[in-house]
Amino acid sequence: MTKQVLSEFFSLNRRYSRSINLERDFELPNSVLGYILTERAVDALQRIFASITKSQSTRAWTLTGVYGTGKSAFAHYLTSLCAPVENQMRHYALEIAQKALGADSSEYEALEMALPPQGLFRAVAVGQREPLRYTIVRALERGADIFWKKGRKPAIVRQLTDWAAEVEVDRTTFTSRQVLAAVKEIAEAAKTDVLLIIDELGKNLEFAAHNPGSDDLYLLQQLAELPRKNNFQVYVIGLLHQAFAEYSQRLASAEKNEWAKIQGRFEDIPFTESTEQMTRLIGQAIDSSKASKYEFIIHKQAEEWSNTLKSATDLSEISTSILAAAYPLHPIAALALPMLCTRYAQNDRSLFTFLTSSEPHSFANFLEEAVIEEEDQIPTLKLHQIYDYFVESVGSGIGSRPTLQRWLEIQGLVSDAKHLDPDSIAVLKTIGTLNLITSTGAFRATRNLVKLALMNQVGEKGSQKHWDQIIKSLLDKGLVTYRKQLNELRIWEGSDFDVEREITAYVEKERSPLAEILTKISPLKPQIAQRHSYRTGTLRYFERQYLGSQAELEDLSCAESDCDGIVGYWLNEGFPQQVPADTKDGKPLILLTAANLNVLKVRAMEFAALKKIQAAATQLQTDGVARREVRHRLVQAKRLLDESLNQTFNLAHGETVCWVQGIQEQISHTTDFNAKLSEVCDRVYNKTPILWNELINRRELTSQGAKARRELIEAMLERPTQERLGLEGYGLEVAA
């Protein structure tokens, strides 16, 4: 029999994607038909309308849930419900609510009464990796165009149209403050409440995390805090794929605290699914229509797994049909995958990218490679293979999540065990994955569950004994520990060293000026005046120093006597009172001021704290887990600090003020700044002879140069009358 690969019978439904797009479907009546108000959606609807009916004070929400849980569909239903009374979409939406709540129910009556005849001013947009004000302007501009489709449009509509055009070419002149004022003006002009919904708000938050100097988060906070004016209110709803705080994981601790404050302005409504429901979604993404010949076998194996797992775990309801639909994903892997994605996913789509992408170790990749050896047995993708995918494709994005220590230790122990046989490594990965998911409850790493996770089907002959022997061997080697009280296998030791607490303690005690801290942890390299050096043959360079006070500025001198000037980086909120033209030792001075100084200070303090912890914390000598975490966080903190330094003194942003020898000048690009260094050198060192010999034109002679000088002087004294002083060849003494 010719061997066949799984991809001949199983494939991925490429069309399995978000069925609702808020912008595309905004005015399509049929797009709301068929929507089902689930228990979760009814709860969200009641919580939101409790505020719209004035009985609650909340006016900003986030809907949080992984991809595929119906957030966009619910938001679309909500906008349909808030349409004008003559709109067919409102009629359909009310019919759905009537069916779900009951025509005579008080909830339905309250819902119908809360909706004004003209509806709400509905502004919806799908977020992008762009400033939040761009997304809001797009939402308002489209909402205004639809709301005032008939009749005279107020002046604010024209303003929004102009701003939207600016957004298209990314050359905006409007500010967040103006956008906020526009929202207020719209509410007054529309004479109804404003409903602002931003799908994919996480993309805006990602942009804000990468550009910490922007005021996007503050705009979000101001929108959430807008008071009722003339009896009209602004309601804001953001759709997220992970918790608000998760988007700030790449930031320093103090920055995360600021994000937490803003998150507190929003009431979060979780759109979460149970493990069974997420596994059902997985089954919907897998197309097994070509595997009809294996349908009986799959159903039989799924039934056996369902019965076995009910007794092996605390999950009382494990549907045979759901497990069968997820084949050829191993049943335990199918149940564990949603938990792993929820806790450790780098992005909201990791569950479905795992299924549909062609990345190494993905499910689609498995279908292309797995071979059906026997007609009565379907190979399945197991838990240890999912571990491979997460380490290779997702693990690098774990960042500084609260469970970082556990992840790093498990990853490190598995990596250190590469010398073992493949089956032993598979056991370690299986235990490690279960450890990552939970240390207690349904999926803790019991010996029985670990063995089941490694078996292709229940009751494989000799399989249990084989895996038992490997587990025993790993226990004997000390690579796995057994916690008898919890009946759990573990491959991580844990750590009692709280890195976050140590960082906080350092920051609270540190009183040194920012300039002093940065000089220690991130000293600046000299900068060469390139054009001048190339044109004259004389290498000229400027020292770069951090400066924090007027006294330092006035007493400034070069640390190296050979340098030709200083570029100072002013680390103070206000401008200096006076900027001298030259340093105390007579060298030209150029001064740059900082933007986003608070962000730079936070990141510098965290990096300094981690360096001190790494150097001075004695606990790290015996605590390998904490040592790895500190090392990992140091790399991350250094990257963030370098990024912040570049942004803080980025001339292209137009926020950095520059003084060149005491005169304030407008410099908008790094190239212009480099040219300015050469101009200063041309002006200050204009009498320097042009000497195009790098062997001679140096600040310090090499040993060869010193020898050539000695030989030249001797020739001048001993053979002054001879041609070429008697020197022959092309040595350095001849060139001199």
Give structural notes.
With 736 residues, this protein is α/β, with parallel strands linked by helices. A six-stranded mixed β-sheet has the order 12-13-14-15-16-17. The protein has a five-stranded parallel β-sheet with strand order 4-5-6-3-7, sandwiched between helices. A two-stranded antiparallel sheet has the order 1-9.
Ordered list of secondary-structure elements with their pairings:
Elements: E1 4-5, E2 11-12, H1 39-52, E3 60-64, H2 71-81, H3 88-101, H4 106-114, E4 121-126, H5 132-147, H6 155-169, H7 176-190, E5 194-199, H8 201-210, H9 216-224, E6 234-240, H10 253-263, E7 267-270, H11 275-285, E8 286-287, H12 295-312, H13 320-325, H14 331-344, H15 350-356, H16 363-369, E9 371-372, H17 383-394, H18 404-416, H19 422-437, H20 447-454, H21 463-476, E10 481-483, E11 488-490, H22 499-509, H23 514-521, E12 527-528, H24 530-536, E13 541-547, H25 550-554, E14 566-570, E15 589-593, H26 597-616, H27 624-648, E16 658-660, E17 663-665, H28 670-684, H29 703-718, H30 732-735
Parallel strand pairs: 3-6, 3-7, 4-5, 5-6, 13-14, 14-15
Antiparallel strand pairs: 1-9, 2-8, 10-11, 12-13, 15-16, 16-17
Helix pairs in contact: 2-3, 5-6, 5-7, 11-14, 14-19, 17-19, 18-19, 18-27, 19-20, 19-21, 20-21, 22-26, 23-26, 24-28, 26-27
